[in-house]
Amino acid sequence: MITAADETLLRRAIDIAAAAVAGGDAPYGSLLAGPDGTVLAEAHNTVRRDNDISAHPELKLARWAARELDAETAARTTLYTSCQPCGMCGGGIVRSGIGRVVYALSTEQLMELNPQSGEWPAVAQEGPALLEEARTPIEAYYGPR
User: Fold this and answer.
1) Dihedral through CA 7, CA 12, CA 42, CA 4, nearest 10?
2) Which pick of 61, 69, 97, 123 has the fewest CB atoms within 10 Å?
3) Judging by DSSP bridges, how do beta strands 78-83 and 100-105 pair with one another?
C-alpha cells in the first residue's frame, strides 16, 4: 500500500528525473530511503554521459546499498523511482537486499510514452554445457557438494 509519505518521496524521485533532463541526461531518477523516511542516497540516469549501459539510478543505488548498508538495514529501506526498474536493475535490487521498491510509471506506461523503451532484441542463450569442467572453480570456491 502506497502511503502519503511514499507519495512525497516518489515526487522527489520524479523531481530528480526532471533535473536529469535539465542537465542533459535521460529522464530517470531514484532515491533510497531508510525506514524512517530519511533519504540515504539519490541518483539519476547517466548512461549517455558516462557511456555506461549500467548507469541506471536504480542500479547505482542498489550497488550503494550493498556496499554501504548491512543486510538488516538494507532490508528495511525503500527505493523510490520515477519508472519501474528494468530487469538489469531488478536483479541488482534483489542482490542488494533492498526491502521495497515504489515506482511512478510502470514499464508498460513508459513504453506508451516512449515506444523505443521496449525495443531490445532477445538474445539467444544456449547451455548448460561442460558441467564437469565448469564445476571445478565453483567447488574450489564454495566447496564440493
Assistant:
1) -20
2) 123
3) parallel
Residues 59-80: pLDDT tens digits?
Answer: 999 999 999 999 999 999 999 9
User: 119 pLDDT band (50/70/90 cuts)?
Assistant: confident
Domain range annotation of the chain:
4-119
C-alpha cell read off for 101: 521498491
Return the bridge partners of 101, or none. 79
**Dihedral sign computed on CA atoms, order 18, 22, 26, 32:** negative
Closest by CA position to 39, among listed 8, 4, 84, 82: 8
Say yes or no: domain 4-119 is CATH 3.40.140.10: yes
Quote the CA–CA distance of 109 and 95 in Å, as a whole number.
26
Secondary structure (3-state) at 109: helix
Q: Which of 9, 35, 36 is nearest to 98 (CA)?
A: 35
